[in-house]
Amino acid sequence: QVLLVESGGGSVPAGGSLRLSCAASGYIYSSNCMAWFRQAPGKEREGVAYIWFGGGGTNYADSVKGRFTISRDATRSTVYLQMNSLKPEDTAMYYCAATGGAYCSMDPQKIRYWGQGTQVTVSS
After folding, report:
1. Are 61 and 46 in contact (CB under 8 A)?
2. CA nearest 38: which of 27, 52, 49?
3. Which of 30, 48, 117, 123 is most buried by its number of CB atoms within 10 A?
């Protein structure tokens, strides 16, 4: 069993920055993948970025490339999402996720573990 707890959300003006953190408890294998998803009101949950927990390889949604950076501290079982140049359309509930297996995915259907979410609001 893996427990994910997010923190770091908040309200910022457009162009601002936030850093989200996700602390994982339970056993995270080096071959596992962790990710950030987001869901805006009335919209489907979408993948933002993922990272291989052991090797650090990453992938990003086109909408956030060049603005967001996902990273991890394997010694602390923590994943981060640094968000710069935030836009109003980035407003959403952000969820930390873990696939629980040796694969990465931006498909919410393939995620086994979810955090409770942290709200990010970007004002124009």
Report:
1. yes
2. 49
3. 48
Residues 6+ apart with CB under 8 A from 63: 89
CA distances from 79 to 36, 66, 71, 82, 118 (A): 9, 18, 6, 10, 14
- Sign of the alpha-carbon dihedral angle for 80, 82, 88, 90: negative
- Structure tokens of 74? 């394997």
Give the tokens for residue 47. 């993948």
Cα diameter, the chain = 40
pLDDT in tens, 3-49: 999 999 999 999 999 999 999 988 767 668 999 999 999 999 999 99
| Interatomic CA distance for residues 50 and 64, integer angstroms | 12
pLDDT digits (tens, 9 = 90+) for 102-123: 899 999 999 999 999 999 999 9
